[in-house]
Design a protein that fits this description.
By secondary structure, the protein is of the alpha+beta class. It contains three helices and six strands. Helix content is 32%, strand content 27%. A six-stranded antiparallel β-sheet has the order 1-6-2-3-4-5, with no helix packed on it. Strand 3 and strand 4 form a beta hairpin. The chain starts with a helix and ends in an 8-residue tail after the last helix.
Length: 124
């Protein structure tokens, strides 16, 4: 138990937070994007007065469309269209990886605790 009393959890927690939140990156793309955008890819689209977060983004001629990210990919009635001339910036990100990491974190912590518990003296 003496190891637990002498340890400093704040740096370890800060490192874990940096690792988890550092996995979400948003990359800026040109208008129109040169590479195809995967249907499940999260896309932030900025205009003069608004910011949209979409997935299932399609480019057609002089417009861009997408489905709000909180709606299912199959919701075609939810699709929003914007003329490309009104788009200031496009960024691509990946929130699913972050969700998987956050969901797995408690199980990893429990596994580490189970492995390190005997080194800390167990229930003695």
């Amino acid at each position: 138990m003496s190891i637990l009393r002498r340890s400093h959890p704040r740096p370890a927690l800060a490192l874990c937070a940096l690792l988890i939140f550092g996995c979400t990156t948003w990359s800026r793309r040109g208008i129109p994007p040169t590479a195809p955008i995967h249907a499940r890819q999260q896309v932030k689209v900025w205009t003069d007065s608004a910011r949209f977060e979409w997935h299932a983004v399609h480019m057609s001629g002089d417009s861009i469309s997408g489905i709000p990210y909180w709606r299912p990919l199959t919701c075609d009635s939810c699709r929003v269209w914007l003329p490309l001339a009104e788009v200031d910036s496009i960024r691509l990100g990946d929130r699913e990886s972050l969700g998987i990491l956050i969901g797995a974190a408690p199980f990893v912590a429990l596994g580490l605790l189970a492995l390190l518990w005997p080194l800390w003296g167990g229930l003695d």
